[in-house]
Amino acid sequence: MTAPHRRHLGRGAYVYVRQSTPGQVEHHKESLERQYELAERAVGLGWARESVVVVDEDLGRSGASAEGREGFQRLVADVGLGKVGIVFGIEVSRLARRNADWYQLLDLCALTDTLIADADGVYHPGMHNDRLVLGLKGTMSEAELHVIRSRLQGGLLHKASKGELRLGLPVGYDYDEDGRVVLAPDEQVRDAIAHVFARFDELGSARQVMLELIEEGRNLPRRRNTERYEQKLWMRDLMMDAAYPPVER
Questions:
Q1: How many Cα atoms are found within 13 Å in the side-chain-facing hemisphere of 65?
Q2: Hey, which end of the chain has fewer CB within 10 Å, N or C?
Q3: How far is CA 34 from CA 3, 61, 171, 179, 182, in A?
Q4: 178 and 140 part of one domain
């Protein structure tokens, strides 16, 4: 276990906060609170409160890749610029689930004399024993992601084998009480979809149909998440859902 030195305390303490999905952000409040409380831990280790930077732009984003995670990219950039004295994450999986991203951060931290802290302790990636522990944690985090994916995929395949798998349907289709795919019960929805297909049969081009609908100012139905059409949302020039049905017309 490594203790922070004055040279570390003179730089920022970055607290990285992330949860993988919007649902987790909304419902898993305890995990979120624990991550934000790392800011107090930084103060307890000697950092001035104004030196603590909370990086939470990646709430609701997966850690499987650094792509699209602006918070993580900003963190890595600031580490490379020597602005960071320590990086806090409640666990390795919050920072990265992919070893390529994890080792990029480790290498930068080692070069810039930056510490990494999780719920178990404080580590220096430039020290052999600490790097060994951090590397093992990263490998376990990536393996855990593979196990989670395998379980989810296995569950989906099992439901599919029993004919019980239900996927989100494009505009114009719905499930009946017996779980069968049927045309949407809303006549406005059915008429709008029928109009799109009728115009496509005549024009032979989805682009031309779209341009015509825009010119007419015609609204098309769009499903919000998996809701039924009692709460439908009508929008302009959004015809691709309608033009890609899951079954033959």
A1: 2
A2: C
A3: 22, 18, 41, 41, 46
A4: no
Flag whether 242 is in a domain.
no
Q: Which domain holds residue 208?
A: 173-236
* Inside any domain, residue 163: no
pLDDT in tens, 85-120: 999 998 877 888 888 888 999 999 999 999 999 988
Residue with tokens 């239900």: 166
Q: What's the total number of domains in the chain?
A: 2
Q: Does residue 249 form part of some domain?
A: no
Catalytic residue among 20, 31, 62, 150: 20
Query: Do residues 80 and 139 both lie within one domain?
Result: yes
How many CB atoms sit inside 10 A of residue 23's CB? 10
What average pLDDT does this structure show over 149-173?
79
Is 57 strand, coil or helix?
A: coil
Question: Catalytic annotation on 93?
Answer: no
Q: Is residue 244 part of a domain?
A: no
Average pLDDT over residues 19-28: 78
| Global pTM exceeds 0.70 | no
- Antiparallel, parallel or unpaired: β 52-55 and 12-16: parallel
Q: Where are the beta strands (DSSP E) in the chain?
A: 12-16, 52-55, 84-88, 115-117, 122-123, 173-175, 181-183, 219-222, 233-236
pLDDT tens string 126-153: 999 999 999 888 888 777 767 777 777 8
